[in-house]
Specification:
Length: about 160
Amino acid sequence: MGLPLVNQFLAQGYALVRILSALKIKPSTYYNWRHWQPSRQEKRRESLKPYILDVWKTFKFYGYRRIAAYSQQTDGPKVSEYMTLKLMRELGIKSRMQKRYRKPKTVVTVDQKPNLIRHLHDLSGVWQTDITYIQLTNHRWVYLATVLDPEKRKVLGL
């Protein structure tokens, strides 16, 4: 809207009625804009923003639920979860929580074989193998297979 323009034209000496009619602004709109005061709720929201930002800077891993719970437990202002979420969105801040590591699941279609090595006393000629899942920094998976000689207690190959 051209409401800030009205003040510029008034400073240049134009009549208010002509300015408003030229800009097609109703006088009530202009006077409402000129006498506008933020509501009590808006003042509270603006006063809560520095508090939420301060808590977030202290605890970067806190999301809106934890920040709201923290505000309930401390002597600071009490803020609901929903209000915390809205203010965090306005401030453009998010929790820096990482997603939890989840090992990929394997599907076994055949029955499990019995462990024949458990009851052996002589381990000569027996090798054991293992497969380990490793997640890389780019969220891809690689598999590490090892072969172990249990008699010598040495890794034979990777």
